[in-house]
Amino acid sequence: MSHHYSINCLPCGHGDSILVEYGDRTDPSRILIDGGPASHYETLREALRAIPKERRSFELLVVSHIDTDHIDGALILLQDEDLGATFNDVWFNGWPQLESISVNTPPDVFAPQQGEFLGSLLQEHHWNASFQEYDGRVAVPNSGPPPSLQLSGGATITLLSPPDTKLLALRKAWTRALREAGMKPGDWVEAAARLAQRKEYKPKAPRKDVFAAKAFGSDSSAANGASIAFILEYQGCKVLFGADAHVAVLTNALHRLAEQQGVERVLLDAVKLPHHGSMANIDGEFLDVIKSPRFLVSTNGAHFGHPDPDTIRLLADRAPGAEIRFNYRSDTTQIWEDTELAATQNIRPIYPPDGQVLDLTL
């Protein structure tokens, strides 16, 4: 049997939708990570239509967090009956998971109505079935090695984010935002009714970029902090999928993982950079606790101008000679194509089509 491990960062504008395949090349297991923005749903739909209909059964759908450029396409996908995609489990931290945390909540800000919409759709799906022993929350314990889970087909997931502290930071904002919208958290009937009124679901207008401060690791968004991020391993190949997670959370989990493994740096075959290469979600400590020959950047740079140039320069400094695989050739990515600049910065930029799909050698 010929094995492969493939990561396809779909060209979904400024958002994320990642199709992962592993196992037998003729009939691989599949994972879908996020759905991208509604404006690019057709890209996701066509990618799934390329799979024979009788094989559109996925081991897992991960909706990492409630930002519209990650969740909106998933909302449409779960209503797309003609597509016929099924999921053995769906990982998403919605109101039932936030409500299960029984400690005081710190203040924060964000608007999560889309999370309620998705929760109403997940009533007919296996929802966080792999985490029932942890009150159904996809979360990393406060101490000890990060949890690992076995998937069908021989893959292993090591969870890196979120911890309960970040889910708590989201909970108060969740209740406040829904109260202002006249909704009650966990009222699936109301959420389904509101979703039904939006027959053509569209992403919100771009909001003010709260990541404008030019400082490494400065992201303070509650939604991003609650991102589900993990390492997916198959046949010894390990890829870190960073969602929009806070870099301090990732680094903490990676230090614990390195301690468990008895190593100074966690070896990875690829890293999908958190938050599309925003410098607010990366720093030197994160890069110093991992070692990887390649980094994936999923964005066309619209709205927020990602990836930040300082992120690429930091990679050149802390991961010299690494491949930087862009899934778009755009104003924010093609500046690194100039061979002299690439040589100066000590990186190897790769653009579509090779930059979009990474097929690891097994």
List keywords for this structure.
362 residues, alpha/beta, Metallo-beta-lactamase, Chain A, eight-stranded mixed sheet, six-stranded mixed sheet, 11 helices, 18 strands, 19% strand, globular
TL;DR of this structure?
The protein is of the alpha/beta class and 362 residues long. It is 28% helix and 19% strand.
Q: Low-confidence runs (pLDDT<50, min 5 residues)?
A: 104-111, 202-213
Q: What do the pLDDT scores average to?
A: 90
Distance between the termini: 12 Å
User: How would the global form be characterised?
Assistant: globular
Structural class: alpha/beta
- Proportion of residues in β-strands: 15-25%
Tally of DSSP helical segments: 11
CATH class: Alpha Beta
Second rung of CATH, namely the architecture:
4-Layer Sandwich
Give, in order, the helices and strands: EEEHEEHEEHHEEHHHEEHEEHEEHEHEE
* CATH fold label: Metallo-beta-lactamase, Chain A
Helical content, roughly?
25-40%
Q: How many domains in all?
A: 1
- Which strand order do you get reading across the main beta sheet? 8-9-10-11-13-15-16-17
CATH-assigned homologous superfamily = Ribonuclease Z/Hydroxyacylglutathione hydrolase-like
